[in-house]
Amino acid sequence: MKFFVDTADVTDIRALAGSGLLDGVTTNPSLIAKSGRKMSEVIAEICDIVEGPVSAEVTATDHETMLAEGRYLRSIASNVCVKVPLTEAGLRTCKVLSDEGTPVNVTLCFSANQALLAAKAGASFISPFVGRLDDIGQDGMGLIADVVQIYRNYAFKTEVLVASIRHPVHVLQSAKLGAHVGTMPPSVIRALFKHPLTDKGLEAFLADWAKTGQTII
Ligand code: E4P
């Protein structure tokens, strides 16, 4: 399973990229706004830090302008993945960009039928939002199970990118279902490393080691 970080904060991205465990980055207009920076500059900087796909989202709602924005975003760096919303215009734009060889991440997916349409439009990634479904009392992970099954049934190449991940259990469930990618806030990636028994065990090992008076090198 690939790990993407869902942020436009380059300090966090740089730190996580240093772990060697980061496979890509997703951003959205809200995250760009939160960064307080010009979109083209922040996307270019992220693309320099991370080799994998960096999702940059269009903000137009009509096909022609979305296409122009998508082509512009793709010109920023070769690892830009253009993100479009799951609307009719978004999928039309997805088809054209995908046919041109540009990877497209279709975002704001909340149903399996929407995911089916995105795969038919040639999307490289589909982003079903699990947390936002859970927030309204629906089954976010149930959607992931449905999409994974449908894509397997027809051998679609579109990767299931689990989005709106809120906690480590979402990551575990996504991995068990065979989702290709999870995008998560930096805090969730950091939480994956943690276990109280790891901390307790390490403390005991180091205390015993100190008693020996040895050093390894
Ligand atoms: C994914 O690409 C989205 O940017 C993101 O996962 C949305 O998460 P949120 O529902 O926590 O805002």
TrEMBL record:
A GO CC term attached to the entry: cytoplasm
Enzyme class, UniProt record, top EC level: transferase
Active site: K83
UniProt xrefs under Pfam families: TAL_FSA
Catalytic activity, as annotated: D-sedoheptulose 7-phosphate + D-glyceraldehyde 3-phosphate = D-erythrose 4-phosphate + beta-D-fructose 6-phosphate
The enzyme's E.C. designation: 2.2.1.2
Alphabetically ordered keywords of this record: Cytoplasm, Pentose shunt, Schiff base, Transferase
Localization annotation: Cytoplasm
Pathway given in the UniProt record: Carbohydrate degradation; pentose phosphate pathway; D-glyceraldehyde 3-phosphate and beta-D-fructose 6-phosphate from D-ribose 5-phosphate and D-xylulose 5-phosphate (non-oxidative stage): step 2/3
Gene3D superfamilies: Aldolase class I (3.20.20.70)
Predominant localisation class: cytoplasm
GO biological process entries: carbohydrate metabolic process; ketone catabolic process; pentose-phosphate shunt
One annotated GO molecular function: transaldolase activity
UniProt-listed NCBIfam families: fsa_talC_mipB (TIGR00875)
Family the UniProt entry places it in: Belongs to the transaldolase family. Type 3B subfamily.
Described function: Transaldolase is important for the balance of metabolites in the pentose-phosphate pathway.
Name used for this protein in its record: Probable transaldolase
Organism whose genome encodes this protein: Roseococcus suduntuyensis
Gene: tal
